[in-house]
């Protein structure tokens, strides 16, 4: 069984706590991304799973085997780092076949595996090229192939695409997903790039400051962020979060956003949760889940900038704590006057406690 279970995992470096009590279960064959900003503890977590670092406390289990004290080489994991580790004086074929040769695999099996992995990673035509003549992109592909060829049941990748160029990264995202589907490995993938996590992972563990913030499917962390950190970190741009206070109106409970005006009535589920909540709140909505109009009723804010990015336009409105971004498809009629009315899709809005940052009203789509 190649499930991975982290139980009360803690890592301290001297007085500094890099990881605070992490509990996480990764299913057999699952692609789990560890996502978060630099320094949040992703690599530290990964290094403990790999056996490169010992936890300060807590346990790591593969299936029901406790990994405490089991050295890296005996854990049966494949590991690919940001900086590719390959032998530059060898050919691609020699690099790929290195692990199988060291394990004394029969030649026919080595040839079969080299052929298969080379095809999967589009290295077939390069097998007899020396590694020192290849680009960084190709070298990272070889490094992934070198690990994958051992067909580890647990495959750990720490920012494997951060040194390759953007176009190649897009290709590799698809290839890595194919690779994982083919071998059905349990894959743990460290990244600070939400696009990588969102496009490849079955589930994402979002981390910040050594604390696991939320675990969920990509669509779940996008739609139902557990807190303000996840709401801002996931999405490009992140969720709009506007300070406000609940107010009863003749149409139901709305959020009074001060100088920006008031929202439309909240869906019943959120309204009920808010009626039993005290304290200040943040009103959240995704930039993609709102429309703009030149006039009407709703949230009114001055347009401060318009950014055209390919097929989309990001309209910036207001400033400071009341800054709003709205993403429009370029074929949507956009009103870029001195001010505009923002109408969020009220079925998709979220409310957070301003003091704790936690979502109010739980998850759900309405
Ligand atoms: N060996 C170490 N000694 C002291 N502090 C460390 C050590 N390794 C990591 N840290 C600290 O622990 C924190 C978490 O580091 P970690 O490398 O896990 O973060 P990360 O999320 O992977 O970020 P990055 O993408 O920048 O590597 C950082 O503040 C880092 O400086």
From TrEMBL:
InterPro entries: AAA+_ATPase (IPR003593), ABC_transporter-like_ATP-bd (IPR003439), ABC_transpr_MalK/UgpC-like (IPR047641), Mo/tungstate-bd_C_term_dom (IPR008995), NA-bd_OB-fold (IPR012340), P-loop_NTPase (IPR027417)
Annotated Gene Ontology cellular component terms: ATP-binding cassette (ABC) transporter complex, substrate-binding subunit-containing
Main location: membrane
Pfam family, one: ABC_tran
Subcellular location: Cell inner membrane
Gene3D superfamilies: 2.40.50.100, Nucleic acid-binding proteins, P-loop containing nucleotide triphosphate hydrolases
Record SUPFAM superfamilies: MOP-like (SSF50331), P-loop containing nucleoside triphosphate hydrolases (SSF52540)
Key words of the record: ATP-binding, Nucleotide-binding, Transport
Residues in ABC transporter domain copies: 4-234
Keyword flag Transport: yes
Membrane-related topology note: Peripheral membrane protein
Lineage top rank: taxon: Bacteria
A GO term for molecular function: ATP hydrolysis activity
Family: Belongs to the ABC transporter superfamily.
Name of the featured protein: ABC transporter
Organism annotation: Mesorhizobium alhagi CCNWXJ12-2
Record lineage: Bacteria, Pseudomonadati, Pseudomonadota, Alphaproteobacteria, Hyphomicrobiales
């Amino acid at each position: 069984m190649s499930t991975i279970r982290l139980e009360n995992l803690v890592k301290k470096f001297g007085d500094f706590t890099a990881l605070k009590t992490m509990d996480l279960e990764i299913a057999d064959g699952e692609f789990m991304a560890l996502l978060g900003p630099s320094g949040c503890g992703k690599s530290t977590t990964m290094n403990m799973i790999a056996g490169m670092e010992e936890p300060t406390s807590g346990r790591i289990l593969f299936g029901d085997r406790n990994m405490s004290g089991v050295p890296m080489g005996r854990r049966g994991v494949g590991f690919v780092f940001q900086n590719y580790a390959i032998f530059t004086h060898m050919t691609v074929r020699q690099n790929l076949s290195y692990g199988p040769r060291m394990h004394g695999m029969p030649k026919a099996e080595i040839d079969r595996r080299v052929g298969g992995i080379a095809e999967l990673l589009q290295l077939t035509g390069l097998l007899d090229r020396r590694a020192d003549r290849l680009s960084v992109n190709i070298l990272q592909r070889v490094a992934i192939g070198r690990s994958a060829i051992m067909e580890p049941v647990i495959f750990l990748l720490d920012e494997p695409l951060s040194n390759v160029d953007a176009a190649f990264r897009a290709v590799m995202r698809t290839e890595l997903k194919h690779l994982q589907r083919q071998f059905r490995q349990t894959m743990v993938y460290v990244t600070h790039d939400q696009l990588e996590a969102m496009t490849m992972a079955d589930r994402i563990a979002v981390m910040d400051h050594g604390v696991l913030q939320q675990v969920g499917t990509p669509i779940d962390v996008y739609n139902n962020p557990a807190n303000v950190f996840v709401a801002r970190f996931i999405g490009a741009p992140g969720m709009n979060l506007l300070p406000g206070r609940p107010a009863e109106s003749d149409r139901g409970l709305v959020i009074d956003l001060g100088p920006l005006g008031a929202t439309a009535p909240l869906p019943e589920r959120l309204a009920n949760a808010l009626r039993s909540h005290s304290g200040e709140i943040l009103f959240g909505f995704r930039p993609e889940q709102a429309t703009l109009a030149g006039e009407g009723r709703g949230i009114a804010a001055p347009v401060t900038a318009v950014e055209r990015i390919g097929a989309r336009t990001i309209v910036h409105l207001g400033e400071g704590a009341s800054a709003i971004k709205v993403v429009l498809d370029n074929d949507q009629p956009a009103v870029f006057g001195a001010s505009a009315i923002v109408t969020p899709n009220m079925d998709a809005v979220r409310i957070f406690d301003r003091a704790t940052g936690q979502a109010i009203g739980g998850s759900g789509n309405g």
